[in-house]
TrEMBL record:
Coiled coil: none annotated. SUPFAM superfamilies: Aldolase (SSF51569). Keywords: Lyase. Belongs to the DapA family. This is Dihydrodipicolinate synthase family protein. It comes from the Bacteria. The lineage of its organism: Bacteria, Bacillati, Actinomycetota, Actinomycetes, Kitasatosporales. InterPro entries: Aldolase_TIM, DapA-like. PANTHER family: DIHYDRODIPICOLINATE SYNTHASE. It comes from Streptomyces bluensis. SMART domains: DHDPS. The keyword Lyase applies.
């Protein structure tokens, strides 16, 4: 068994955008095709039901079927569903659903209905860990108001509740502190626009947004970065950064879906309350995407 089989969250795992029909129903056939296309283009796996997959506005039936669809097409070891929910019991049930569907790991935000304290965070991860499937923490203090600081992550890892963390704080300095406090905890790049910095800091994977539109070029960027091929990595990073930075903006779902449309994939609309992009936002993203296409990155 390879190391990545033991640690299926390593490599490039795409937080998948979810194709919707014109009447905003989930298009499971298109989603299946999208998952297969990402793997064919060098990605290692997918993360359904993350915020990029609009999980907050899915029915429980839709949410479960999205996971099952991904597993049926690319195999469970390549699928790491998001299992975030307001209550720990509900997150645990989603982890159990992922486990029963054959997934290799799950990704879990801290409690995010309110600004949870450390004891609540520990209890939340302890509860979900009972599902018996490896848990990757997701630190997104910008959106959740709960910051999984390195000391807290080390505690969660020491208790056996988490195996890795998707780091979205944007603070690259934390990578080095984490490596000292919890050397066995895998650091995953959580925001596309700090990819190079976190790769150089020892990241073992990338939970990625923009590969939804440009998988081959972004995968090449990731491997160049982790392999220390700085000439290639810097060139690609500079070319792609005008797009990658949208992964950290409020409109990241709409931005990535628009880029998908421009390169000939199915991005399409989002469910409310997400609004369409403003004309100037759309123009900026369209221009950056077309530039990437012209540079041979699509």
């Amino acid at each position: 068994m390879t190391l990545s089989a033991h640690r299926p969250w390593r490599g490039v795992l795409v937080a998948t955008a979810l194709p919707l029909t014109d009447d905003l129903c989930v298009d499971h056939d298109k989603y299946a095709e999208h998952c297969a296309w990402l793997i064919d283009n060098g990605c290692d796996g997918v993360v359904p039901n993350g915020s990029l997959g609009e999980y907050q506005v899915l029915t429980p039936e839709e949410r479960a079927k999205v996971v099952e669809t991904a597993v049926s097409v690319i195999g469970g070891s390549r699928v790491m569903p998001g299992v975030a929910a307001y209550g720990s019991a509900e997150s645990r049930r989603w982890a159990e659903q992922a486990r029963d569907a054959g997934c290799g790991s799950v990704m879990l935000l801290p409690p995010n209905a309110y600004r949870a304290d450390e004891r609540s965070v520990l209890a939340h991860y302890a509860e979900v860990a009972k599902a018996g499937i490896p848990v990757v923490a997701y630190n997104n203090p910008i959106d959740t108001k709960v910051d999984l600081v390195p000391e807290l992550l080390a505690k969660l890892h020491g208790e056996g509740f988490i195996q890795a963390v998707k780091e979205f704080s944007g603070d690259v300095r934390r990578a080095y502190q984490l490596a000292e406090l919890a050397p066995e905890l895998d650091l995953l790049i959580g925001a596309d626009d700090v990819l190079l910095e976190l790769a150089l800091a020892g990241a073992k994977g990338w939970v990625a947004g923009y590969p939804n539109a440009l998988p081959a070029a972004t995968v090449e960027l990731y491997h160049a970065a982790v392999d220390g091929d700085l000439a290639t990595a810097r060139r690609l990073y500079e070319q792609l950064h005008p797009l990658l930075r949208w992964d950290s903006k409020v409109e990241f779902v709409q931005a990535i879906k628009l880029s998908m449309d421009i390169v000939g994939r199915h991005g399409g609309r989002c469910r409310p309350p997400r609004m369409p992009l403003l004309p100037e936002q759309e123009a900026t993203i369209r221009s950056a995407t077309e530039k990437a296409v012209a540079a041979g990155l699509a």
